[in-house]
Structure formats: C-alpha cells, structure tokens
Amino acid sequence: MSQLPDNVPADLAMTFPLTPRTATTINPYTDIIPRLQEGPPIFWGTDVFPGRQGGWVVRRAEDLRKIYADTENFHKRGNTGFAAGIGESWDIIPTELDPPRHTGFRNALNPVFSPKRMGELDGKVRLRAREYIDRFKDKGSCDFVKDFAVPFPVSIFLDLLGLPQEEMQQFLDWEFSLLHTDDMEDRVQGTRAVKAYLLNAIDERRRTPGDDLISIALQLEVDGRKWSPEEVFGHCFNLYLGGLDTVSANIGLHFFHLATNPAHQNQLRENPAGATLAIEELLRAYAAVTTFRICTHDIDLYGVNIRAGDRVAMSTPLGSNDPEAFEAPTEVRFDRRPSHLTFGYGPHRCLGAHLARRELQIAMQEMLAALPEFSVESGFEVPFYLSNIIHVDSLPLIWNR
C-alpha cells in the first residue's frame, strides 16, 4: 500500500473490491457488497480511481444522497480526469458542470431527453431489439453479452447520433481504453481518438445538419447564446461515455438474474406488464456505477476529515444495497417499488435515465416474447468485471428450440 495522506486513519484504509478493473467469478452483489455493508460508513479506498489512486468511499444511501445534493462542498468539475489526462481543460457537459453553470445547460437538455421524447423512439428501439434477437432465437443458445447486451444499446446510441453502425467495434475499442483499463497511456490515446472523431462528426453536422443529437446540440442555447464548439464537443463526449456502457452493463446483469432465477423469469412471462416494476427493482439490486465527487472545502463526516481536493466515490452498488435503506437488500422483490440510487440523485441525476428505462423494458419484453425459458450454460461460471461500471463479461444462455 502506498503512503496514505495524513488525514486518513490507517484503520480506515483498504483496497476497494468493487473497482479493481479485473474479472472474478465471485458475485459482488451476494458476496462482496454485504461484507462491505458490515464495515464503517466511510473508509479510504486505496485504488478507487483509475491509475490506482485513492479516495473516500461512502456506503450509506442517506449519506450518498446528502453528498449528491451538496454542490457547495462537493463539486464535479474535472472529476473524470479525461481532459486533464491530455493536458486540456474542457468540461464534459452536463456531467462535469456545477451550479449555477450546470443549471442552464441542464435546462436546455431536459426537453431533448424528456420521457415523451424518449417514448417517441420506442418503434426504432423495438426494431433494433428484434433485429438482434432474430439472429439467435432459433439457435437454442447465444452469448447474450456479445450477441445482445452490448450491440443493442450501442446501436441505439449510433442511431441517435447519426453515426454508421459499422463504427460500432471501433467505438467499443475506444470505450475499453477509457473505462476498463488502468493503463493511463491507453486512456490518453483513447481520449484523443474519441475527441478527434467527435470533432469531425460535429463539423459534418454543422455543414449538413440532420435530426440527430449532434445536430440538436448545435442549435441549443444557454444564457441567450448558442453553445460554443467546445461545449458541443463536451456534450457529445458525455453522450459517448453514457451511451456505450451503462445500459449494456444493466442489461447483462438483469438477464444474469433472470437466467439464474427461473421463477422470476416465468413471473414476467405470465405478467409482461410487471416488467416496469421489475426493472426498477433490478436497477436497485444490480446497481452498477461508481462516479466521483471532489471535495471543495474541508468537511467532517463520521469524525473523518475529508480534505479539499479529496475524491469521494459515489458507489451506487453500495447505496442501492444499503440494509439501512432497504430491507433484505440481497433479495430481489419485484413488488418493492424502491427509491434507488442507480441513476444518481439531485441536480446531476442521469440525463439519459428515461431512455435507459425504455431500452431495458423493451429488451425484457422482446426477449421473453421470443424465447422459451432460458438458463446459463451448465457448468459455466459467470465472470463479473469489477470497475466503476460493474458488468458481466460473458453470459452463455441456452434454451430448448
């Protein structure tokens, strides 16, 4: 263990087992998170941030909500480190903005991602889902992650940005460099490559606008002016980060649950309308994302001195499985109606939450309508990739044709 900052008590320092950027066959939701919930409400994770950097980890849902809402003492600017990693200072919009600047950009974007607007995409999303399911539904098996959980939401992202489906693998390669490796040089090269690609796409839309999200961003206003080129790019970078990984992770985790819990699978077959509530409980039970805040001013929490500049890991897997907030959190109860933290909380609540819910619901409806009861291939140990976005690396499903 590297030398600890002098405000970190040695007995509160530990490796954080949810974000090592490695795969394991240990189920984090049943075997790791419950153990963490028995520990202190705040501790220092020695390797929570890419590059094996340390930061505070807060596990209680109540405390996470307070930090989410406290924009005076905890800020987001620069919290991902992507711009700084290539020696620049642009913001990921609206993710890395703080009030009051954040408010104007968020107000401009909310109508673009409203429930009504996202609902209008249902037909296109459903066609994409059926397109991928049709490729394997008669085969009796598939690698669900490779054949559906990854390409389905990424194809929607490409459609929304007006980008060619043929670019999917390149985008996924860059995404791996940004989010799934501790090699900082890979992260730098990936950031530069994504920036160059998006700037080129923005220039193309400026010349020949369409109805895609890049073209829409070029027309948005804040404080009575059009967004600057850097601001449009910052928003497109945010769409890239949000569109390629989080929904894929959620779909894979949710179908891992259904494949290993046939009673729940059959319950949803008998009552398809129950998918809406079921998805909220699955989002809680399998919350996947850890984001970060940076402490703005020295502040005490549970007798711990969090110093200005310290990173704080906002672990939704911990907060959404907090036994003080949810009775028997490791139990999946489709009638629970949870107020979970999967999409965050407060002013920075996930901009794409409405679209994510539509994608998850349509994926569940179409899969259960197209396939008979499915299960994980016998003898296969499902690998969970532990990082700031937890996901299953592979999920071979089988069913009787």
Short description:
InterPro entries: Cyt_P450 (IPR001128), Cyt_P450_B (IPR002397), Cyt_P450_CS (IPR017972), Cyt_P450_sf (IPR036396). The protein has 401 residues and is an alpha+beta fold. Helices cover 46% and strands 14% of the residues.
In terms of quaternary structure, the protein is single chain
CATH architecture: Orthogonal Bundle
The number of helical elements comes to: 17
Fill in the CATH topology.
Answer: Cytochrome p450
Number of domains: 1
CATH superfamily: Cytochrome P450
Spatial extent as radius of gyration: 21 Å
Helix content: 40-55%
Shape: globular
How far from one another are the termini? 53 Å
Q: Uncertain runs with pLDDT below 50, 5 residues or more?
A: none
Counting DSSP E segments of at least 2 residues, the number of strands comes to: 16
CATH class: Mainly Alpha
Main beta-sheet annotation: 6 strands, mixed
Strand order of the largest sheet: 1-3-4-12-9-5
Q: Name the beta content range.
A: 5-15%
> Could you report the average pLDDT, rounded to the nearest whole number?
94
Class from helix and strand fractions = alpha+beta
GO molecular function: heme binding; iron ion binding; monooxygenase activity; oxidoreductase activity, acting on paired donors, with incorporation or reduction of molecular oxygen
Keywords: Heme, Iron, Metal-binding, Monooxygenase, Oxidoreductase
Family: Belongs to the cytochrome P450 family.
InterPro entries: Cyt_P450, Cyt_P450_B, Cyt_P450_CS, Cyt_P450_sf
